[in-house]
Amino acid sequence: MPTLPPAGHPRSDSQTAAIRADAEAPGTEAPPTHVLVVDDEPIIANTIVQILNRSGFIAEAAYGGKEAIEAAQRTRPELVLSDVLMPNIDGVEAAIAIQKFLPNTRIVLFSGQAATVEILARVRRLGYHFELLAKPLHPIQLIKHLRKE
Hints:
Helix content is 44%, strand content 17%. It is an alpha/beta fold. The chain folds into two domains: 1-29, no CATH class; 31-147, Rossmann fold (3-Layer(aba) Sandwich), CATH 3.40.50.2300. Strand 4, helix 5 and strand 5 (131-134) form a beta-alpha-beta unit. The longest helix has 13 residues, at 42-54.
């Protein structure tokens, strides 16, 4: 890693370039610019948004499947992190709808219900492949998972 000049001394152009190159080196990819967090429990969605924003992501919350679809159409997130079991339009239905108009958006689903595995197996047979995380989400593990591709 490049060394920094003493406090109060400006960096040379070569030092700045070396630091930038080091930050952009393989394995240190920047997190997605924009994450849409979806959960019908606002306290959960808002907490995850705070954790992600403090970790270098730009995150916003949606509180249901319909709102998630509308927000994704409006903001075009690079990543959607959604609870599976929600009333009306669940996370899987919302993920499928979002994937249709944003095919390159990464979708990560989370759930505390064992039945979710069956739901995901069913949608895989339809050609959709979503990542699944188990609740409760540990903040450090969540950040590590979202930063990998």
